[in-house]
Amino acid sequence: MARRSIFWDFIKVAVILFVSQSFLGITVRADIKGGIIRRQGTQFVDSNGNPFLVHGCNFYWLMYQGADQSTRKFVKSVLKDAQTLGLNVGRTWAFSDGGYRALQISPGVYDETVFQALDYAIVQARNHNMRLVLTLVNNYGDFGGKPKYAEWGRQAGYKIPNDDAFFTHDKLKTWYKNHVRKVLTRRNTISGVRYMNDPTIFSWELVNEARCESDPSGNTMARWVEEMAAFVKSIDRYHLLSIGLEGFYGAKNAVSKRWAYPLNMDNTGTDYIRLNKIANIDYATVHSYPDLWLPSWKSPAKTIFLRIWVNMHIRDAMKVLKMPVVFGEFGKNDRVFDYKPEQRQKFFWTIYDSVYSSVEKGLSGVGSMLWQLFPKGMEDWDDGFAVYASDPATARIIDSQGLRLKKVEQAIIKARNATLAESNVIRLWSNNDQVSGNDK
C-alpha cells in the first residue's frame, strides 16, 4: 500500500506539471492568433477559452485616410501608437455614403480604391495585434449615414417623410442590407481573407449611436434591430454583434433612472434594456459624454454622474441583460469652460476603475474604448476629445489600465489551469481505481 501511494503521488505531480506546462505557451492577452472572439455568458473568450478584455480606442477615419496615398501613413502610425499604449481593440467606420472619398457612391455602387483602403486598415490592425469593431452605418449625416439613405430614396422617387424612414422604408432597408452583405462577404485584396472569416474583426456594429426620435416608444427601433441582427447573423454567425447604442433607457425606463440620467435624452426611441434583449445581439454598448449631455454642470458633478452612469449599466448588464457590456465611447472635452488637464485624467480613471472592478469581480463590464486616438499630424481633426500617445500623463493611465487588466487575465487563466490539473488528476486516479477493481 505504501508503495502504491508513493507511485500515485508521483503521477499526480507529473500530471500537474504536464497540464501547467501545456498552458505556459498561451498568450495572456489574447492576440489575433486566438481566433474569432466569442461571447461566453457575461464574458468574452478567444478560441482557446482564454478571457478577452477590451482595452480599446476609436479612430473612425482609418478608411478615409487610407484612401489617399498622401494620408495613408496616418493609419499605420495610429495603430503603432495604439499597440504601444497596450490597446487591443479599435473601432472604425466600414461605411462612407456619398460625398468625398465615399465607399458607397450610390446604393450598391462602390469605389474599389476606398474599399482597398479598408482592406489596408484591417491588415495593418492585424500587424499591430489590434482587432477592429466595424460600424456599418451612421445615425448622423457625417460620412453619409441615415440621412444619405433618405436622400437617395427621395432622389429615386420614393416618398421619404424624414430620415427615420431609414428604419421603416423597404427600399432603404434593402439598400442597407445590401451594404451589410457587401462588407461581410468582402474578400480582402491584401490578405485574401473574407471579412466574415477574419479574426482581426472583433465585432460588427449595426449603427453608430442609433436613434429614432420620430417614434419615442422604441417600437420602430426594436423591429429594425430584430430584422437587421437576424440578417447579419444569417451571413456571419461567428463574429460578435452589437447595436451601437449610447445606453439611454427610453422614455418609460428613464423615469426610474432619473437620478443618473441625461434629462434631454428621454425620446431617442431607444432603450438599453429592451433592445439588447433582442435575439442575435451579443453584447451591449454604452457611450459616456457628460460634457455634451450636461453642459451646464461643473466638472465634479459630471464625474459623479459618470461614475453612477457606468456602474448602473454594468449592474443592469449583469442582472437584467446577462451579457457583456463595453463602454464603446468615452471622452473628456478639453474645450469646456472650466477644463484643466487633470480633469481628463480623473475622467479616464473613473471609467477604468469601474471596468477594472467589474472584471476583477467577474461582472459584465468587460472593457472600454476611449474617444479618440490620433497620431501626430492629424491635429486639425481634433474635436476636443483627441488623445495622443505623446501625452505622457494620459499615456500612463492607459498603459496602467492595460497592465492591470492583463493581471486579471493571468489570474483567470491560472485558476482555470489549476482546476484542469486537479480534474485530470482525479480522472486519472478514478481510472486507476477502476483498473485495480477489475484486476481483483
Notes on the protein architecture:
The structure is a single chain. The protein is an alpha/beta fold and 440 residues long. It has one domain: Glycosidases (TIM Barrel), CATH 3.20.20.80. It has an 8-stranded parallel beta sheet with strand order 9-8-7-4-3-12-11-10. Strands 1-2 form a two-stranded antiparallel sheet. It is globular, with a radius of gyration of 24 Å.
CATH architect. name: Alpha-Beta Barrel
Distance between the termini: 15 Å
Low-pLDDT segments: 1-30
Beta content: 5-15%
Q: How much helical structure, as a percent, in the residues?
A: 40-55%
CATH superfamily: Glycosidases
Shape descriptor reads globular
Q: How many domains make up the coordinates?
A: 1
Strands of the widest sheet, in order across it, are: 9-8-7-4-3-12-11-10
CATH domain class name? Alpha Beta
CATH topology group: TIM Barrel
Topology, please?
Elements: H1 2-22, E1 38-40, E2 43-45, E3 54-58, H2 62-66, H3 73-84, E4 89-93, E5 104-106, E6 109-110, H4 112-127, E7 131-135, H5 145-155, H6 170-184, E8 201-205, H7 219-235, E9 240-242, H8 250-254, H9 272-276, E10 284-288, H10 290-293, H11 299-321, E11 325-330, H12 341-361, E12 365-370, E13 373-374, E14 387-388, H13 392-439
Parallel strand pairs: 3-4, 3-12, 4-7, 7-8, 8-9, 10-11, 11-12, 13-14
Antiparallel strand pairs: 1-2, 5-6
Organism: Riccia sorocarpa
EC number: 3.2.1.78
Domain Glycoside hydrolase family: 37-372
